[in-house]
Specification:
The complex is a heterodimer of chains A (88) and B (130).
Chain A (H helix, E strand, L loop, with lengths): L2 E9 L7 E14 L10 E11 L5 E9 H20 L1
Antiparallel strand pairs in A: 1-4, 2-3, 3-4
Chain B lengths: L1 H22 L6 H8 L5 H21 L3 H11 L6 E8 L6 E7 L1 H24 L1
Antiparallel strand pairs in B: 1-2
Classes of the chains: A alpha+beta (88), B mainly alpha (130).
Chain lengths: 88, 130
């Protein structure tokens, strides 16, 4: 269906190439104030923490960040998915 | 009638597993649960059921799930409806991307959409302020 992109911050276990189910989604909206490459960023970003359960029952956490345009694209794709699901 | 009976047996099984795993009641053996609750099942059949239920209980306890999480988790165990498959590509500069595949049924999807609407609302309020 869709591919979202983000920066991987943290993982507790390897769930590569495994179909898993989302159990919880936590988020925060952050602001990058400054960095070594840019003194005055004032750039908002979305940070997501997904709690997922593997087919085996093991619970894993994945966290990643997205820029606002990335998040909006992500959101749009989920809305499209929901629209398609309604027709099934 | 049959549903009430099987619910009662399952409830007994979950309680028995919880007693042994979390309260150290070692006398509640797998054999005891088999003969008392599921006498019609062979040892192998019962072991499959027992291990699955034990796995579920342990996952739930380990994750310290609240009601909403529990509902999502248990629904996923019994899912029958159409599902959406999402592949996330997560990457860090200088490293290979990792792929996470997630399944969503309609209920999961709606939950996620509600959260995303909250995020968008938060973004909008920042934009308004600046």
């Amino acid at each position: 269906f869709g591919v979202g992109q983000g920066t991987n911050l943290e993982k507790k276990c390897d769930v590569s190439n495994t179909t898993t189910t989302l159990v919880d989604l936590q988020w925060k909206l952050g602001m990058s104030v400054s960095s070594d490459t840019c003194r005055s960023l004032n750039s908002p970003y979305v940070s997501l923490l997904l709690k997922v359960v593997e087919p085996s029952g093991q619970i894993c956490q994945r966290s990643f960040e997205m820029t606002i345009p990335q998040f909006q694209n992500f959101h749009k794709q989920f809305k499209e998915m929901a629209a398609v699901m309604e027709t099934v | 009638m049959a549903d009430a009976e099987s619910a009662k047996a399952l409830s007994g099984l979950l309680n028995g597993i919880a007693q042994r795993e979390f309260h150290n009641k070692v006398e509640v053996t797998e054999e005891l649960l088999n003969t008392e609750l599921y006498p019609e099942l062979s040892r192998d059949q019962f072991t499959a059921l027992h291990d699955r239920m034990r796995g579920l209980l342990k996952s739930i306890a380990t994750a310290d799930m609240d009601h909403a999480q529990l509902e999502a988790f248990l629904t996923a165990q019994t899912r029958r409806g159409p599902v959406a498959l999402v592949e996330l590509e997560l990457g860090t500069a200088g490293q290979d991307s990792q792929f996470v595949c997630l399944e969503f049924d309609e209920a999961n999807l709606n939950q996620v959409l509600r959260k995303m609407a909250d995020i968008q609302g938060s973004i909008d309020s920042i934009v308004q302020r600046s």
